[in-house]
Amino acid sequence: MKRAVHVIIHALLIATREQPGHADQLLRQALRLAQQALAQQADDREAIRCLGLLWWRLGARRRGRALVSFSYEL
Length: 74
Prior knowledge:
By secondary structure, this protein is mainly α. The protein has helices spanning 3-18, 23-40, 45-58, 61-73. Helix 1 packs antiparallel against helix 2 (23-40) and helix 3 (45-58) packs antiparallel against helix 4 (61-73).
């Protein structure tokens, strides 16, 4: 994952704490960015881990946990 994308995703995660009313929308925007980063490089461990954490925050705990554990196996 490129550093610029990582910084944007991090900023969106911080914004979810500052604006809890828009948290779902901000998390989905970060999810799209992480998916695009993963589409560019399929074996990107950081992008997979980021996707897992974002799914976890969105409420899909099993999917998030599976992606995070898979990212450590790479």
